[in-house]
Amino acid sequence: MPPDDKRTMGLRERKKAKTMAAVQMHALRLFRELGYNATTVEQIAEAAEISPSTFFRYFPTKEDVLLKDNYDPVLVDAFEAQPSDLNPLQAMRGAMVSAIANMSADELATMRERNQLIMTVPELRAAALNNLTQTMQLIAELAAKRTGREPDDAAVRTFAGAVIGVNISVMLHYAKHPDADFAELLDEALSKLEAGLPL
Question: Which residue ranges does the Swiss-Prot or TrEMBL entry mark as DNA-binding (predicted)?
Fold first, then answer.
């Protein structure tokens, strides 16, 4: 791809990410003020100064304004940067904890607020399951690549499911204890998984 095309694509992607972030910020504010169920797509679009049709270009549903994020590429980069002598669980633990540690205070506050809404609004929690299933597939692909296995290998699928299960348990706890340190909770939970989940 010629350098000018790359620059244009980079600009387009940055503009898209900036618009998405602005829409999500306005949506969170309205959810806080009016409640999730009482807030309409039209109100979010108006607050973000876009049309409802533009909203739906970025977010197919109202739920997606909370569920859609840019964390997957961050997780992939952090996982691939882990030392090669770590097993998949150690590498995933290091990747997840370091990705959260690199978030700004504003990003952490937004994550906290999104998590509380997702875990406490029934339709959002149900919609989050599809999102988590996609993340589980991503984790399976990362683990498969690291171990030389296939993503649909039973052990790889089980590994990915266990990591997602840990994440769900941490998200639920964090929704009830928003002042907790999410990275610390996740690190502790993944360390228990690594130790074989002794009870």
Answer: 40-59
